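Lecture 7 notes: from sequence to structure.

We start with a single chain of 86 residues. Read the sequence below before looking at the structure.
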Amino acid sequence: MGNHMAEPENHTLHLLRELRDDVKALDGSINALDRKVDRNHEELKEHIDSLREVMAGESVLGRYATAGFDDRLTALERRVSALENR
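Now the structure, written as tokens:
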């Protein structure tokens, strides 16, 4: 009779140990997923930063090209104006 009572206790301990192992495995999986998410976030931040730099560089080049075009246009307008005033 005493042996019969110990079986549910042993079964409960066995289930608790399995549950503990499953929780540890799940915790490891969650930690791995967290690291992966952090890595992806960092890569995306770097990608966005490099895109910002490219856009800023293109903006500077655009302003430079526009300034050069404006200078040439102004020079042409002066020449046309000088020709008209002859």
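The two ends are 127 Å apart (CA to CA). Keep this in mind for problem set 3.
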